[in-house]
Amino acid sequence: MSVSVCIATYNGAEFIGRQLKSILLQLGEEDEVIISDDNSTDNTWQIIEGIGDSRVRIILNKGRKGPISNFENALKFATRDIIFLSDQDDEWLSNKVGDSVNILKEFDLVLSDCRIVNKDGYVVHESFFHIRNSQPGFWHNVYRNSYNGCCMAFRREVLDYVLPLPHSIHMHDWWIGLLVEVKGKVCFYPKPLINYTRHGGNLSPTSETGYGLSDRILNRITLLINISIRLLS
Predict the structure, then answer these.
(1) What PANTHER family does its record include (predicted)?
(2) Cβ contact 81:53 at 8 Å
(3) pTM more than 0.85
(4) What CA–CA distance (Å, rounded) separates 45 from 10?
(5) Contacting residues for 217 by C-beta, under 8 A, at least 6 apart
(6) pLDDT class for 39, splitting at 50, 70, 90?
(7) When comparing pLDDT for 210 and 83, which is higher?
(8) Backbone angles phi, psi at 95, to 5 degrees
(9) Cβ-based neighbours of 98, under 8 Å, separated by 6 or more
(10) pLDDT at 205
(11) Which among 21, 54, 56, 163 has the fewest CB atoms less than 10 Å away?
(12) What are the boundaries of each domain within the chain?
């Protein structure tokens, strides 16, 4: 099965070169990397183009600004059998693609564990799953979401029912994970497959950092309303 890696970038010059190298080492000649850039003002584009790999395609996000629109833009251009989501600032471990593709022979979506590291690569936590109490289940992940996009891969057929991404939802990965919980077969893989970099400037799709209780409740109500509409359409 061939692979599309979808990356959303915005001012990612500090880490994007390292991340791309860790990804490209695992891909075959028939695979592709689709990068949607949200109008970066640093030299993200130049670093990507400087890698000089024909499997990498970078496109400008001309839609709404922000990670949801930016990832949706990348997903629209993905053409391969298996879709990986990737942040711009992590580092893939050498068995990420191989392990994920094998699992997706039996499942529709795989969510792997990850090691949490700081910007210098120092391991802060060995297991995201452990500190998050990660486990499958629709209502468990409504209450305490573990669907971290950078740890997700899924079969292309999933795009048929997760796209388009509603503009009102909190994050794209939460939406994708919950819809596959309802319509597909999910595997929580307890082996870390990436170094998940926390450097203070990145978005954290699972923590809702900075949101008060009322906002968290509203995020979940909005998500559930949109899921219900999608399932009934």
Answers:
(1) GLYCOSYLTRANSFERASE, GLYCOSYLTRANSFERASE TAGX-RELATED
(2) no
(3) yes
(4) 10
(5) none
(6) very high
(7) 83
(8) -105, 10
(9) 26
(10) 42
(11) 54
(12) 3-232
Instruction: Give the pair of three-digit tokens for residue 189.
Output: 């893989």
Chain center to CA of 129: 16
CA distances from 219 to 168, 172, 187, 208, 211 (A): 9, 12, 25, 9, 10
> What pLDDT score was predicted for residue 119?
87
Q: How far apart are CA 96 and CA 214, in angstroms?
A: 37
- For residue 128, what are the contacts with CB-CB under 8 A and spacing of at least 6? 113, 114, 115, 116, 134, 146, 148, 151, 192, 196
Q: What is the DSSP letter of 15?
A: T
pLDDT at 200: 62
d(CA 198, CA 202) in angstroms, rounded, equals: 7
Work out the number of other CB atoms within 10 angstroms of the CB of residue 33: 24
The structure tokens 């001309």 sit at: 62
Identity of the residue numbered 194: I
204 DSSP β-pair partners: none
| CATH homologous superfamily of 3-232 | Spore Coat Polysaccharide Biosynthesis Protein SpsA; Chain A (3.90.550.10)
**Burial zone of 132 (CB within 10 Å; 0-12 exposed, 13-18 middle, 19+ buried):** middle
- Can you give the length of the chain in residues? 233
Q: Position of tokens 């388009």?
A: 164
Q: Which pair of structure tokens corresponds to residue 165?
A: 């991404």
